[in-house]
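User: Hello, can you help with two protein structures?

Assistant: Certainly.
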Amino acid sequence: MNVVVENLPNCITTLRIELEPEKVSVVWDEVTSDFSKHARIPGYRLGKAPKAVVEKKFKKEIREELEKKLLSGACREAIQEKHLRVLSLTQIDDVELADDKSMKFTATLITHPDFQLPVYKGIVVPMHPTEVTDEEIEQSLNHLREQAADFVDMKEDRGAEMGDYIVVDYRGTIDGKPVEELFPKAGKPLSGNDDFWINMTPEAFFPGYAAALIGAKPGETRTFEIEVPADFPVEGLPGQKIQYTVTVKEIKTRILPELNDAFAATVAKDKTLEELRTMAREELGRQKIAGVEARKREDIMRQLLSQVECELPSDMVRTETRRILADVVRENQARGIGEDVLKENEQQIVGGAAENARQNLKSTFILLRIGEAEGIKVTQEEFNRRIVQLAVRYDMKPDKLLKKLDERNALDQITEEILTAKVLDFLAANASVTTVAAGV
């Protein structure tokens, strides 16, 4: 078999393959023999027609069967012979069968990007400290207290002060018209709300909003003007002056529970405050270690990506870009951002998604190449464990999930995810760590 390889842009490779007449003739005779056994030809008993007669009558069908038997196998053999890293076989064409039974054809492949692996062992990464300080424990406990806080009506006969929580009804207009009528993208919250809670801080709602309500008592209505900040993300609104009419309905004080054994028992059943501190220290330690490990891996990939330049398969980039875009749209819609805002920022969003897609794919190819160089593989046990984890996440039986993944041709993707994670663990274990001082 003679194979000529041509590398084209966008990770496309063509193979011009020529098969020897001897090999083709053997398969041709096998196929013709099969047809002879079952062919019904007038004037001949079943299976007794001469070879030449069978070839003449079924030439087209014999050739089609010949190509089925030879072409795919020849492609696999050529790929192995030339040590190509193939993602997919896209097409086979230009098939030529000569009178001497030699056969030529062209196979078009999508291959892995071609690049030189940088040095990947001993990558220098910073290691931030994972010790948990007493101050961090206190912050964690105070956060738990804030979550358990109670809000009670102000008993003093006074107006609202900074630090209070107030409940208000309000309306916002520009030149007498609701804000959302003039600026639909701003949404309803700028135009009005009832029973709205505000924490009286300088930056609450808009800078100056809370300050305008200092001293207001329940039942009191105030009218004031607020200038929209320059960084407000709705075109045309920055610099506009909104007239607000606000009625204070309630003034509330936040009461934090006392930090004692009784409070600890409400957070963790039958635990004392000291035991709660120990639990907080352990959890914060786990979070810090996980964060440091994640940062280590991010830094390793950032360094590897900066050292590799390569083309990427355009179809894969488009597919990954669409996947990222779908995630971005879904996340923004969940946050209440309308389609009009997304449309307005479409170019920026698409550009960001395309760049992320390229980085994701390049990262994967780098990790796969390192895995190949180091002989890192996915075991059946690791694959099965991953399937069980996914089945639990999606509340499905493992065998049913496995079937669905197989139907979607997604099993290789699962294997790839496990493999790239293993390679990243390998890189992290072989990194050269430099200690970073606390607070840096």
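That covers the first. Now for the second protein you mentioned:
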Amino acid sequence: MGTHPRHADAAGKVELAQVLARHGAAYRATHRLAAVQQRAMRAIQTCRTAALGGHVERCDACGRLRYSYHSCRNRHCPKCQALAKERWLAARQAELLPAPYFHVVFTLPHELNPLAQGNPRVIYRLLFDAAGRTLLEFGENPRWLGGELGLTMVLHTWGQTLSQHLHVHALVSGGALAPEGHWIRPRGGFLFPVKALSKVFRGKFLEGLARAFDAGALALAGNTTRFTEARARGALFAALRAQPWVVYAKRPFAGPSQVLNYLGRYTHRIALTNSRLVSLDEESVRFRYKDYACGNRRKVMALEAHEFIRRYLLHVLPKGFMRIRHYGLNGNRGKHHKLAQARAALDAPPSESDSTPPESIENFWLRIAHLDIHQCPHCASGRLHRIATLTPRAHGPPR
């Protein structure tokens, strides 16, 4: 468990932990929460506080003391994603192919939001499965490519105002590995038609949704009889079939550095970062957001505190659910062999080994923030040395 110096956090800023400290107890008293939501709330509140323990350091020049506390490492905590992201990116760098990459987004209609709230694991799994199989099938189709794609997909469940907006971002190789071993490039820089992707994606999702209902894997909330359940299910499917589903494709990235920049923005993003919080009082929380309907104008929204917490907890994932998944050439089965074949087909040298040890916390802060965490922040000349261990004041939150 990493420790973090208190001076590394900007003073005077509103943080999600403060929102939960002020309003969390009242919210828990009036709302039923899943265990994973309760764990996330406790983790965020206690992150980098004495509750989780830490250590004391003394400067060898001026004698000042610094208290550093452990982080919670919960994936929904806004303080605990930077190091995890950087380490994940380092592992992915060796897997990138010297080829263009496309960014494709698959979005579920909002009519599915209530069903996802009661059955998140099933709906999120169906979203991954339908989008992944759609892309792989288009890649295998000789009309488009005729080979195996490499793709990484990331689940996001939120919009800018913390509303529920279920979608996956897919990073797709601009080409495919043919069964004969050569590399197939897309014609004219064009990957797949989004209207065709949308129809196939919708069909695959609805097929999976029907199977899940038939297997008893999910249920519509608020229905007490088979008759009302059947009517509600029929109405839901009719509404979902009657509308086009949104699939969006961006222009291809120029190279590996752009791909890594993209991955860094999307893979470990959470619903709301502390930097977007503006103010907090006894009644409301104010935060910044982008209004896409108004040309991405930056605005400030005020939400009643309990509504803010409710929206944030909508995006806490089920325990153990993997929000980043890999398919095709990037899938875990045979990944190293397939990627080596693809690199050979692209006349690229073998990738460097990805077996290097994880970056230390000290090197991470030095590289990202140019911060030497062992330098005394008071005199700026002495070095900090650990002199005591701080035991947790309470049991840390389960992860």
